[in-house]
Amino acid sequence: MKAYRTLILAALILTFGVVSLGAYVRLSDAGLGCPDWPGCYGKITPKHAAEHIEAELAVSPDGPVSHAKAWKEMVHRYFAGTLGLMILAIAALGWKLRREAAGSPWLPTILLGLLVFQALLGMWTVTLLLKPYVVTAHLLGGMATLSLLLWLWLRERKHSSQAYYARVEHLRRPATLALLLVGAQIALGGWVSTNYAALACTDFPLCQGQWIPADMDFEHAFTLHRELGETATGELLTMASLTAIHWVHRVMALIVFLYVGWLAIRLLRTPGYVCFGMAVGGLLGVQVTLGISNVLFSLPLGLAVAHNAGAAFLLASVVWLNHRVRRP
Questions:
Q1: Where would a tag sit more exposed on the chain, N or C end, judged by fewer CB atoms within 10 A?
Q2: Are 150 and 180 found together in one domain?
Q3: Residues 37 and 121: beta-carbon distance below 8 Å
């Protein structure tokens, strides 16, 4: 069982890396660095595909393909592939050790199914040329994988019976709502990123000098099935649509900040949950600061990647809280 728990923890740590690396690939415009899948021009590494990359550069020097972008994309695939093998092993061990495990082997099995779907989304991200709803779904799949692995690790790890926790039935619904709000905000953040709407508003707290911008197009902004940078009818997506996407993300960020901040204060006042309150509140503050900084400093790559990683850590803290309040 110790090896099983260690494997789950290693996969969990790797998932944080894969999620952050995926954000780096997306934000550095390397998502089409290798325009096929799973290899790079049918080769195992960009080095073996150098001739094809040079040919593409000769035709389109400023296009989406370059040696650096190809390596970024393939390194992400290597790490994701390694994670896939680890989750496959976790699912197999979950059934083998089902009599000794703390819960049903169906959780690691569901995790394996999610991984297969996530691999398909990764393929479609490339073959469908970065369609926003596919790229956003791929991001959410990564966050869901992270959440399920964390829940599985928390379920299987050894717990101390000496710790005192207050009765917390009253925290279960607030914790669930916090999880839903953070998940919804991550989805909106992914939609902002995949539509390149992060700089539609370059000021803060106002947006284009207004609290509520007069020119916003919500209809085209939140039409899911469309090409990147286009409306469903094939016209170019306007700044009014990008502004609507960005503004809704800001409004949701305010809702999350107020609600999760209130929950963190409540946790600080609950015996045995002070550490949870500090973790959730601290990560919330860091995430809000990173979001504002990305606007004020015009989306530097490092801050943008940190904002994605911060979302993963905030989500993990809320998942951990939900697990804790439901434990007997």
A1: C
A2: no
A3: no
**Is there a single domain that holds both residue 43 and residue 182?**
no
Inter-CA distances, 15 with 82, 160, 232, Å: 10, 26, 34
Which among 56, 73, 219, 235 is annotated as catalytic? 73
Taking only the tens place, the pLDDT of each residue in 69-85 is: 999 999 999 999 999 99
Q: Could you tell me if 173 and 149 lie in one domain?
A: no
- Whole-model pTM: value is 0.94
Whether the CB-CB separation of 31 and 25 falls below 8 Å is answered with: yes
Averaged pLDDT score across all residues of the chain: 95
d(CA 285, CA 215): 30
Domain check: are 9 and 65 in the same one?
A: yes
CA–CA separation, 291 and 98 (whole Å): 43
Cβ neighbors of 78 (< 8 A, separation 6 or more) are none
Residues ≥6 apart with Cβ < 8 Å to 317: 276, 279, 280, 283
Q: Is 73 a catalytic residue?
A: yes
Angstrom distance (rounded) from CA 109 to CA 206:
46
- Tell me: the pLDDT tens digits for 248-261? 999 999 999 999 99
Are 241 and 287 in the same domain? yes
| Cis peptide upstream of residue 205 (ω within 30 degrees of 0) | yes
Long-range CB contact pairs, 86-90, < 8 A, 24+? 86/7, 86/10, 86/11, 86/14, 87/11, 87/111, 87/112, 87/115, 87/145, 87/149, 88/112, 88/115, 89/7, 90/4, 90/7, 90/8, 90/11, 90/152
- For residue 40, the SS3 value is strand
Does residue 283 surpass a pLDDT of 60?
Answer: yes
Structural domain of 172: 166-328
Quote the radius of gyration of the chain (alpha carbons, Å).
21
